[in-house]
C-alpha cells in the first residue's frame, strides 16, 4: 500500500502528463469554411436553396422519402411528436437513461413521459418492460421513443412488434446514431419518425441543428408547415417567386428552421460521412486493443451496427476503492477530459415528478459506473494509448 501511495503521488504530481486531450473536437476542413464563405457572399443566409439541397442529399443518403433540416434535434423531436397529433396527455414510453431533450419534447408536445429501465447488459431501453407496462390496466400509452445510446441500435425488431400490436407511434431519437445501420436500414428511418442531431460533438455537425426523417407524407406535411410558424409558404418561396404571393398561417407552428449558413457545413460533412465514420471505428478499435486484458473495465460491445458517437466504458467499481467521479477527476489531472452519459432523468429534481412504474435497477447502476472517453476524428493512436494506460494505472493504484 505504501508503494502504491508513493507512486500515485508522483503520478498525479504532473511529471507523467503528456497531453491535454479534450472530450471532443469537431472535424472541420477548408471545404466547410469555403462553403460558409460562399453563403455569406450570396446575400441569403437563412433557410433557402442550400438547406433544400442538404435535405434532399440527406434523404437520399439514408434512403428516406422526406427530410427536414431543423434548428436542433430537440426541435425535431418536438416537431415529430407534434405532427403525430396524439390525444392530449397521452403517455410516451422512453428510457430514463437519456438526455433531457428527449423528455422535454414529450412535455412540449402536450404528452407525459413514462420512464423505463435499460437492458441488463446495455444502455438502450428494455423491450420486456414495454411489454409489461402495456399489460397493466388501461393507461393512455400512445407512443414509444427508443433512444440509440452512443450510436448502438435499440432492439428495433421487438420495439416495432410491440408498437404494431398496440398501435403505438414510434419516434426514434437517433441523435447519436448517424450513420449506423440495422440490417439494411439506417437507424432513424425505421420508426414513424426519426430525428438526428448535428450538435458540435456529433458524428456530423452543423454547429447546431438536426434533421427529422419520415416516410409518411401526412406527417411530412404537418412537419413542413409547423417548422416555420405554420406558414403555408416559407420565406425562400415568397422572396424568390416570380410574382408576389401573400402568405397565410394555416396551423400552429414554431421557429425551427435551419439556416443556409449551417446547412452549408452540413452538406460538406455529409460528403465526408463515411470517411469520418471509418475514423471513429478505427479509434474505437484502438481503445479495445489497448484495454485488452484489463480486469477493471467493461467495454462496449463490438458491433457493425454502431455509429460510435460515444465510447462508453464501465468501471468495475467492486474492484476499486474510488468512485467514478474521483476516477474522472484523477484523469482530468493527467490532461484527459471525459464525460458522463447520462444522469438518469428520473433522478433529477424536475423529472422526478413523473415516477417510473418499475425500479430502474440497471439504469441507476449504469449511471454510477460509466464514463465516456474522448472520441473524435483527429484523435491519434498515441493519445488513445496514453488515455488507456493512464486509466489502467489509476485503476491499479486504487484497486
Radius of gyration from the CA trace? Answer: 23 Å
Whole-number mean pLDDT:
94
CATH fold type of the largest domain: Aspartate Aminotransferase, domain 2
What helical percentage do the residues reach?
40-55%
Largest sheet: 7 strands, mixed
Describe this structure in words.
With about 400 residues, this protein is an alpha/beta fold. The protein has two domains: about 1-25 and about 275-395, Aspartate Aminotransferase, domain 1; about 30-270, 3-Layer(aba) Sandwich (Aspartate Aminotransferase, domain 2), CATH 3.40.640. The chain has 14 helices and twelve strands. A hairpin with a 2-residue loop joins strand 6 and strand 7. Helix 2 packs antiparallel against helix 10 (about 260-270) and helix 6 (about 125-135) runs parallel beside helix 7.
Q: What's a concise summary of this model?
A:
This protein has 399 residues and is an alpha/beta fold.
Amino acid at each position: 500500500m505504501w508503494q502504491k501511495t508513493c507512486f500515485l503521488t508522483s503520478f498525479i504530481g504532473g511529471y507523467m502528463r503528456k497531453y491535454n486531450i479534450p472530450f471532443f473536437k469537431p472535424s472541420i476542413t477548408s471545404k466547410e469554411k469555403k462553403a460558409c464563405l460562399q453563403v455569406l457572399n450570396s446575400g441569403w443566409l437563412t433557410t433557402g436553396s442550400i438547406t433544400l439541397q442538404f435535405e434532399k442529399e440527406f434523404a437520399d443518403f439514408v434512403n428516406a422519402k422526406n427530410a427536414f433540416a431543423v434548428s436542433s434535434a430537440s426541435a425535431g423531436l418536438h416537431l415529430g411528436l407534434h405532427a403525430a397529433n396524439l390525444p392530449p396527455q397521452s403517455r410516451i414510453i422512453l428510457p430514463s437513461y437519456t438526455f433531457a431533450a428527449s423528455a422535454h419534447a414529450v412535455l412540449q408536445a402536450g404528452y407525459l413521459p413514462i420512464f423505463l429501465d435499460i437492458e441488463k447488459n446495455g444502455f438502450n431501453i428494455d423491450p420486456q418492460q414495454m411489454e409489461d407496462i402495456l399489460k397493466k390496466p388501461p393507461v393512455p400509452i400512445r407512443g414509444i421513443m427508443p433512444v440509440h445510446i452512443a450510436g448502438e441500435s435499440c432492439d428495433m425488431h421487438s420495439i416495432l412488434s410491440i408498437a404494431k400490436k398496440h398501435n403505438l407511434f414510434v419516434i426514434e431519437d437517433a441523435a447519436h446514431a448517424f450513420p449506423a445501420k440495422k440490417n439494411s436500414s439506417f437507424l432513424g428511418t425505421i420508426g414513424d419518425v426519426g430525428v438526428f442531431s448535428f450538435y458540435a460533438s456529433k458524428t456530423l455537425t452543423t454547429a447546431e441543428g438536426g434533421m427529422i426523417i419520415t416516410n409518411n407524407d401526412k406527417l411530412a406535411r404537418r412537419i413542413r408547415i409547423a417548422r416555420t410558424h405554420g406558414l403555408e409558404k416559407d420565406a425562400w418561396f415568397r422572396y424568390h417567386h416570380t410574382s408576389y404571393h401573400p402568405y397565410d398561417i394555416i396551423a400552429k407552428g414554431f421557429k425551427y428552421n435551419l439556416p443556409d449558413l449551417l446547412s452549408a457545413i452540413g452538406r460538406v460533412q455529409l460528403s465526408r460521412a463515411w470517411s469520418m465514420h471509418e475514423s471513429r471505428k478505427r479509434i474505437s478499435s484502438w481503445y479495445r486493443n489497448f484495454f485488452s486484458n484489463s480486469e477493471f473495465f467493461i467495454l462496449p460491445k463490438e458491433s457493425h451496427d454502431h455509429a460510435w458517437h460515444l465510447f462508453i466504458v464501465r468501471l468495475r467499481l467492486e474492484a476499486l476503492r474510488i468512485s467514478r467521479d474521483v476516477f474522472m477527476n484523477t484523469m482530468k489531472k493527467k490532461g484527459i477530459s471525459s464525460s458522463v452519459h447520462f444522469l438518469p432523468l428520473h433522478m433529477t429534481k424536475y423529472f422526478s415528478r413523473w415516477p417510473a412504474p418499475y425500479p430502474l435497477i440497471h439504469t441507476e447502476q449504469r449511471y454510477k459506473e460509466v464514463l465516456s472517453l474522448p472520441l473524435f476524428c483527429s484523435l491519434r493512436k498515441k493519445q488513445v494509448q496514453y488515455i488507456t494506460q493512464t486509466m489502467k494505472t489509476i485503476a491499479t493504484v486504487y484497486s
